[in-house]
């Protein structure tokens, strides 16, 4: 019996650039660390240890031998319902001297829940955080729902801090409003203040923190080595997951543009593309649920240099995208599971994967 792709999906597929199936060397996957609960974000310290968040609200240190510490002290309370909790973290570019750590979390405030950015210092003994201080709330707070916080952090070559925020799900149109910080990527000073050369700075009725708008639930941010381009991944609804290259002041369309449909099968947008809105460089129908992303620039896998790795939740696994300039030229599914929340290149040139599990692990990929 001959099967045919539904007409709608075929039409959407024709809108996307052709993507080849890439080939890569064999890999060996081992458990590097175990005993974590829903690890979400991680960063390597200069001494090779790994600082890791757990979504229920804990921060732990993983030694070079994979041993997991007791929870660190000084971590603020979080709103750990739905998709919320203690989410991403990033080290300041000058962490070696300042010991500054930036954390993103879901927080319950008057009026509901929101995405919050904090700045803290890692104590000299690395057993606690010191002076954890909120520096930005992605207002307004929203009482309905506990989903779509975004919450990925990346420092750019310009020294700015970039933070992704989700549309918070209940009101999709928040992603298009310039007086609202939901459904955006923000560009900030390390104090949490907007930078004066941001695209909407000085515009009446617009938040000066906004760098780009029209995002649904962006959980991937990564700067491309050699070009300084900021790449981003976000969850679509049922289908329509995206990888984008972000440009200051640009609108990426959600919810006026999407290649997916709502969870009940109903149409969300009238078109997959519109004038004045930026199309993705990669889109998936059906979904892969992309979370964290990272470019690979290590020595352990020479054939992978320049590739963009995508942590996938559903179907679970790890995806490698080959990239030429601003184009995706190939795709390879490296793992069939488990659910991967984040991928972190290590100082040893290996890849470390955080699994989205109640009995969470950090997997290590090495040459096979």
TrEMBL record:
SUPFAM superfamilies: Soluble quinoprotein glucose dehydrogenase. The keyword Signal applies. Residues 1-22 form the signal peptide. Gene3D superfamilies: TolB, C-terminal domain (2.120.10.30). InterPro entries: 6-blade_b-propeller_TolB-like (IPR011042), Glc/Sorbosone_DH (IPR012938), Quinoprot_gluc/sorb_DH_b-prop (IPR011041). The keyword Transport does not apply. Keywords: Signal. Residues 36-364 form the Glucose/Sorbosone dehydrogenase domain. It holds the Pfam family GSDH. This is Glucose/Sorbosone dehydrogenase domain-containing protein. It comes from Paracraurococcus ruber. The lineage of its organism: Bacteria, Pseudomonadati, Pseudomonadota, Alphaproteobacteria, Acetobacterales.
